[in-house]
Design brief:
By secondary structure, the protein is of the alpha/beta class. The chain contains 30 helices and 22 strands. Bound molecules: adenosine-5'-triphosphate. Adenosine-5'-triphosphate (ATP) binds next to helix 5 and helix 7. This is DNA helicase IV.
Length: 717
Amino acid sequence: MPSHVPIQDSARSNPGENPGEPNEPNDAVDAIGADDPLGRERAHLASSRTALRAMRHDVESLDITDVTGNWVNAKILAAEIDDRIKALSDLADTPLFFGRLDYLHAPGGEVAEGAGGEQFYIGRRHVHDAEGDPMVIDWRAPVSQPFYRASRTAPLDVRLRRRFGYTGGDLTAYEDEYLTDPPEGTQEPGTSSKLLQSEIERPRVGPMRDIVATIQPEQDEIVRADITGSVCVQGAPGTGKTAVGLHRVAYLLYAHRERLARTGTLVIGPNRSFLQYIEQVLPALGELQVKQATVDDLVAHVEVRGTDSAAAATVKGDARMAEVLRRAVRSGIRMPTEPVMVVRGSRRWRVPVYELEEIVGELAERDIRYGAAHDALPQRIAHAVLVQMERAGEAPDDRVQDAVARNSAVKAAVKSCWPAVDPARTVLRLLSDPDFLAASADGLLDADEQKTILWAKPARGLASAKWSAADAVLIDEAYDLVQRTPSLGHVVLDEAQDLSPMQYRAVGRRCSTGSATVLGDLAQGTTPWATASWAEALAHLGKPEATVEELTAGFRVPREVIAYATRLLPQIAPGLAPATSVREAAGTMSVREVGEGALDAAVLAACDTALEQEGSVGLIAADARIPVLGAALDAAGHRYVSPGEETSAEARLTLVPASLAKGLEYDYVVLDEPAAVVDGEPDPRTGLRRLYVCLTRAVSGLAVLHTAPLPAALSTP
Ligand SMILES: Nc1ncnc2c1ncn2[C@@H]1O[C@H](COP(=O)(O)OP(=O)(O)OP(=O)(O)O)[C@@H](O)[C@H]1O
């Protein structure tokens, strides 16, 4: 952590002694006395706000009637303008700038958005005055980067870094770090930034916030990594993986706006409540166009109404299924046995078997999609007819070729050699027809595995099939075999450790020509097929060249709590580095055994105690315990919400099923009966990993209550 001078605030500010005076005030701040640095910064804030309002007003008053030729263009332009107006709104609770950099020299014209000035205010978006001079520089601009990266050892030409503190939208404090030539008496080497610390320690309320003011250097490296490469981040709970992924999208949209506007960006999260938890971060950063989805959403070709046993889902998610499906899709390809006879007028044209064989053989060899080959085959046969016509002295044109391709004899030949494939029907047949599965899975799945995935009661048709989530992924793979899935420009995949190889493939084809940011923690893998190594996962994703980074500095979980949860690591993910906690507040942690029959009341009492504190409270329990605890809370008159629902002053308590706790956080967590959380999973290792996730949701305090014995690693004092 770089050194700093003590925090200045409105109450304590001592102008005469203040070492952090701006060195090149602009006109607006000149009007305020030079002996009132905080006042000058406030004046800059006020004039930046005015400038932003003017920018917004300019956009609002744009008249587009003359520039849009038609209704569609007008609609598109109006929507773009609407987004721009939203992006330029001045949100009362998000300060316009949070930092200032005083450069020693004017940064080079090619990198500086505001070249020529030496002082830059860093904020969420660019604000300029009426002359076009920058008042606030976007945090993503190259000139802002030293705010996150500069240090005393590598000052990057920065003399002073100033951080601002806000209280309820008012600028109330600032803090300076001199990176080069510190004035006498201003350095306290080794002391951490108080504003940074208070931002990290701030109580959590509502959905996730952006961390743009406090991105750490190791996080910034990932955020600003080049768009052409894919990055994978392994990180212990609370190390900021989700935050980094979201800020990376915002950064890439800034740096490659046009390219990504064309190709699109997507953030993939584990479930809907998680997506609701993170959905406000990008809009707060001015980015309104990023799509969010779960993997299930991506592959929603059929309605999912069924579930699989863990064993069946594991086989269905295995990468070998890709080859099983390839064979199944192509199982209808037949070498022709009859010539094709096309009758046109008084003439007959005959394409002999050997020539048809050549055409079909060549299409089968080529690396093109099944559907593309199906569409090409009639044209190829027609071409063979056309060659004969030309040889006979005719001069057929393209229209004749199209007509021949549509000829019933050609159609019949295509139907018998290269029949159309319906992806869902193919999967239905695989799961219902033992012979078809055996033929497609020969040498890939053994007899037991085949039996495991076959439906006990074969579905009669597409509509009555009880598709599972894993089936939908198979159908998606089959779709891609028939027709290439369009690729986006960039995909962020959060909680990636839980995906099956087939799910990685489904995500991978959505960024086949783009890049990916893969975020996860091997220790939090709670599916029976969870990722064992990132190298393997990245290979399934089709990005084997991605670099793997590790984050270990934890911003969420207090030291004592992370130490307790870390006891599970040797059993659930040996070899992984435990998280360290950067939180200074010690937090509270208690583990209490209660007698038979007294657990529900004890849990409610623990919630009451937690609710006495400021911030959010999460009661986390095994999924099977949720109805019981919900009823107990109702009976006691407690208001509570479910994950993904917004908390309010009256309902600060969220009742969280263990299966939905991943990625979320609460100031205080009450954890009900750990043994039930473990038992809720199909095997003990997955159970302990689920418990690890639940134990690492707390920001300020954790209370564990149990009647059943704790898992061995947690039971010793
Ligand atoms: N540089 C930072 N400054 C301030 N807060 C931060 C920083 N990095 C992360 N945080 C905060 O720490 C908390 C945890 O971050 P996040 O949810 O991104 O972690 P994670 O690694 O995805 O956790 P999990 O593995 O549990 O999903 C969030 O509240 C986030 O805002």
